[in-house]
Write a structure and sequence with these properties.
383 residues, alpha/beta, Rossmann fold, Oxidized Rhodanese, domain 1, five-stranded parallel β-sheet, 15 helices, 13 strands, 33% helix
Length: 383
């Protein structure tokens, strides 16, 4: 039953015939897992808490960084350096102290996903990488849980519901992931700060509709949004009978290694030598540190000047990505060249370009200067 205080808090809901006391009780009894407390997870979790969803599971293991605050509104300036899980929990409890919050301060993986997800009615995916999207999708399909999905890129967003009974899953839309480095992250390409606010709110709306069993949910529909044009469009989706997970004869019946599936190279323990990485022309931060100490390396930074001002590795040379083709003559062919950017996407393209133009000893810094700052030199500012 709803208490007197709850009747007051949710009075605007109770006035809606589609909600009423019965619907508000459904919200109170519901449990939703929010995976990721970033740009999408912020408004998503906040509106679910405000709406009175009784139990919210929160999955995140990252810490709040100053660069998050442009869009991750569940965190504030005073939270910089704190675990996002702690910051988000404090915000949500301030919004609605009556809800139950379950914290998972860990990455969601093939080893723990099924155990975590099985306890919830609905999963809302607010992550920003393909490995986790496929993992969450497959786990939801295997457990029969609806997956309320959204993603963002620069000024564009998309949303849908995957894994619902009779509806398509994420693999029906994207059977295979893009090649590593071909789709830049928000940290590489940028994102309009208000965009995840809208898309995360759409996710929250769809979650509430599923709980209430009201309206027309985004099952079998991919909603597309362009912020610059202020334009919404929609694509009809159908379940693929041959889908490897939700099809009639699925070939994936248990969770797999999603790093391998998405072509992400795994790091070994300790310092990895460059010789082990010759095949894919990448070098780990700790290996770069060793190479710098040997003083036979040319550090090429292909970020923008403003990024270089925020943080740079001593001795690196700045040539923004778009200018590299005009400055090949300044690059030494007698030295090992290590190319770096923020997270490794832009630099990977430059490495490929340099190899095509006759440079043999050229490597991409895996994870970019951001990973270098975390693993080697913490005095470098992250952004």
């Amino acid at each position: 039953m709803l208490s007197k205080e709850e009747l007051k808090r949710y009075s605007r809901h109770l006035l809606l015939s589609e909600v009423g006391i019965e619907g508000q009780q459904k919200l109170k009894n519901a449990s939703v897992l929010v995976v990721g407390l970033g740009g999408l997870g912020s408004p998503l979790a906040m509106y679910l808490a405000a709406s009175g969803v009784g139990t919210l599971g929160l999955v995140d293991f990252d810490v709040v960084d100053a660069s998050n605050l442009q869009r991750q509104i569940i965190h504030g300036t005073s939270d910089i350096g704190k675990l996002k899980l702690e910051s988000a929990t404090a915000t949500l409890k301030n919004i609605n102290p009556d809800i139950n919050i379950v914290q998972y301060s860990e990455a969601i993986t093939s080893e723990n996903a099924l155990d975590i997800i099985k306890a919830y009615d609905i999963v809302a995916d607010g992550t920003d990488n393909f490995q986790t999207r496929y993992l969450v999708n497959d786990a939801c399909v295997l457990l029969g849980k609806p997956n309320v999905y959204a993603s963002i890129y620069k000024f564009e967003g998309q949303a849908s519901i995957f894994g619902a009974k009779g509806g398509p899953c994420y693999r029906c839309l994207y059977p295979t992931p893009p090649a590593p480095g071909t789709v830049p992250s928000c940290g590489e390409a940028g994102v309009l700060g208000v965009l995840p606010g809208l898309m995360g709110t759409i996710q929250a709306t769809e979650v509430v509709k599923l709980i209430l069993k009201q309206g027309q949910p985004l099952i079998g529909r991919l909603l597309l949004y362009n912020a610059l044009q202020m334009h919404f469009s929609e694509i009809k989706l159908k379940r693929n009978n041959n889908c490897s997970v939700c099809g009639d004869k699925p070939t994936i019946t248990k969770l797999i290694d999603y790093d391998v599936f998405c072509g992400i190279m795994k790091e070994g323990k300790g310092v990895e030598s460059m010789e082990k990485l010759h095949g894919n022309n990448e070098i780990m931060p700790k290996s770069l540190f060793d190479l710098i100490n040997k003083k036979n390396v040319f550090l090429l930074d292909v970020r923008e000047p403003y990024e270089y001002e925020i943080a740079k590795i001593k001795g690196s040379v700045l040539i923004p990505q778009e200018q590299v083709s005009n400055k090949l003559d300044v690059l030494p062919k007698d030295k090992t060249i290590v190319v770096m950017c923020h997270h490794g996407g832009r630099s990977k393209k430059v490495v490929e370009y340099l190899i095509d133009n006759g440079f043999n000893k050229v490597y991409n810094l895996k994870g970019g200067i951001d990973k270098y700052s975390m693993e080697v030199d913490r005095s470098l500012d992250r952004y």
